[in-house]
Amino acid sequence: MKLQTDLLAQAANQARGLAIDAVHKCSSGHLGLPLGCAEIGAVLYGHALVHNPDEPRWLNRDRFVLSAGHGSMFLYSWLHLSGYDLSLDEVKNFRVLHSKTPGHPEFHATPGVECTTGPLGQGIGNSVGLAMSGQMAAARFNTPGHEIFNHHVICLAGDGCMQEGVAMEAVEFAGHQGLANLILIYDSNDVTLDAMADKTQSENTALRFKAMNWDVQTLANGHDLTAILKAINKAKKAKSGKPQLIIAKTIIGKGIPEVAGTAKGHGEGGAKFADAARKGLGLPEEHFYVSEQVRAYFSDHKKRLKRAHGKWKKAFATWREAHPDKAALLDGAGQAPSAAHLLGKIPLFPADAKLATRAAGKDVLQPVAAEVPLLISGSADLHGSTLNYIAADKDFDKSNRTGRNLRYGIREHAMAAISNGVAYDGIFRPSCATFLVFADYSRPAMRLAALSKLPVIYIYTHDSIGVGEDGPTHQPVETVSGLRVIPNLDVIRPADPEETAGAFAAALERTDGPTLLALTRQAVPMLNDASPHERRAGVLQGGYILIQETAPLTLILLASGSEVQWAVAAAKTLGPGTRVVSMPSFLRFDAQPAAYREAILPSACRKRVAIEAGVTALWSKYVGLDGKVVGIDRFGLSAPGNIAMKELGITAESVVAAAKSL
Fold it and tell me: What backbone phi and psi angles, to 5 degrees, belong to 426?
């Protein structure tokens, strides 16, 4: 269909009007991008995007990601005009409590929003994950004569996104992997929030991206509808095997002459000129105005989109009939096997085994990967240390798009953001790995996974001062507690191989948020005071009785991870009235019914000691005012792990001394 430039130009100005009115109404928001990129939105939603507003999640839609999430009124305006379930009243309720138009786009809040974006650069990382998921899906499910996956991922980003390190990590990964279904539109308006962009950047973006194996187009006029469409079509049809960058030179805040092209145009500064701006844009006095002609255009366009979707559904039905096994696998995407089922597939460990929990994790991963064929496993250049390689499979790369092992390179932040993108797509189950201390490099993306309820699994190893000789820079004394305070992030620190089996099963069963497995570098003994099945099941509850007292209860010892062994050793000295509680997951334990928690930690027993090779503060809610915590409220030191533990008091003797001091 020929591009209807006159109508789309009107739509662009009316989308500008919606943004101006919404920001003016709530006296909050960002006008720069919605006004500066209005023509890009008109071409995308009025012509170029393959989507269906009535079925926002259909499998072969183009995915559009607004990485510059502060420009959310751009997205809300176009979703409303396109006919998504986003009424004009919701647009009017921009940034109002419980509306479908929150300040930054949120995945679960608004139909048509593919990712929760806001922190700059994350959306670029998410888009790389979406594109990678698309490549994996095409390779795994397309068959000769049945191309059910051939969509594109289109991301709109500004200077703020492009300056963030996570974005460039992800861009480099995408170029190396040749993710040719990825189109990044760079809203290059020469302005950042504080000042003109030349105050903080002087790079040649086109050359930089070309050096990272991207194709690049530059639009001298990012408001030229015909030129925008030509660039998008060229990017979609490119045969180079490279991701595509479109640099669109735009005017920030276009439509409000008083601030257009300046740093003042970034935020709500132009809203006070709303009436004059609306008049200059040819809009009537009526606020939140959309003309009948524009509404009719998008109504007709929606019918065209639905017809195209209908053709795909017919092809999809033919594919399903021809390939029932593949269809069954795809139908299972997003579903999770029960922990009980997975535990039944994981062999018990020998009672005399002495393994690092990372090594136990390697053994556990293989049977669960066979049970979850859409599970993928990546590592930040550390497969040999994190031990999370799926042995029965190969690497994902340009020559093998069905590979389940991902080599992210030394890009922890992008690894986590890309994993989020895979999870947003909902077809594959992402897991990734690095050393636990480097969770700080991936933490912003992990936080967003928790906020967005994404079932990402982090297999993070070398979890304490047991790392040893690498010293305090690599010994994560504060990291476990720092991650535990992120709402909805389940941090599981298993104490032995059987608890590790329970931890993997728990992580894979969970679908409403991310799980981090904190695994040891050093070997730990089997905790045979409870049966293997009790230890596995205990992880699912978050905390359980590992050693039951054999006399009236006088003392409770609590621990997680590799320090549970010291609580066990101390209990043998402290007498038959001592109970040992293994506490691998605070989140899970705190979610148990009050009766269960009381049964494990009876309030009548106030003599309690906890031990963990990390900061002590969070344990206070379990030991109470009368108890004590044996931990490390300082950074570590460089020495072999066992010596570092002893030097810093992480021993059974310290537990005994603390108990006797109560």
Answer: 80, 10
Tell me: pLDDT of 572 over 80.
yes
Residue written as token pair 């939105």? 41
Enzyme catalytic residues: 412
- Return the structure tokens found at 493: 């620190």
- The angle, 0 to 180 degrees and rounded to 10, between the axes of the packed helices 439-451 and 122-141 is 80
pLDDT at 253: 92
Tokens found for residue 631: 């931990």
227-240 pLDDT, tens digit each: 999 999 999 999 99
pLDDT in tens, 413-451: 999 999 999 999 999 999 999 999 999 999 999 999 999
Listed in sequence order, the DSSP H helices in 332-459 are 339-345, 357-371, 383-386, 412-425, 439-451
Straight-line distance from the first to the last Cα atom of the chain, in angstroms, rounded to the nearest whole number: 80
Place of tokens 């639905």: 306
DSSP H/E element including 169: helix 165-177
Selection from 246, 275, 106 nearest residue 184 by Cα: 246
Question: Which residue pairs from 395-403 have beta carbons closer than 8 angstroms and sit at least 24 positions apart in sequence?
Answer: 396/132, 396/136, 396/177, 397/177, 398/177, 398/178, 398/241, 401/135, 401/136, 401/138, 401/139, 401/140, 402/136, 402/139, 402/140
Residue 562's pLDDT is 98
Cβ-contact 580, 490 below 8 angstroms: no
* 582 touches 560 (CB < 8 A): yes
Q: Enter the tokens of residue 661.
A: 């001091």
Tell which residue, 475, 471, 449, has the closest CA to residue 462.
475
How would DSSP label each residue in 483-508?
Answer: HHTSTT-EEE--SSHHHHHHHHHHHH
| Strand 544-547 versus strand 578-582 pairing type | antiparallel
pLDDT tens digits, 601-650: 999 999 999 999 999 999 999 999 999 999 999 999 999 999 999 999 99
**222 close to 250: Cβ distance less than 8 angstroms:** yes
Angle at 290 between CA 284 and CA 292, to 5 degrees: 105
Give the tokens for residue 352: 């005399």
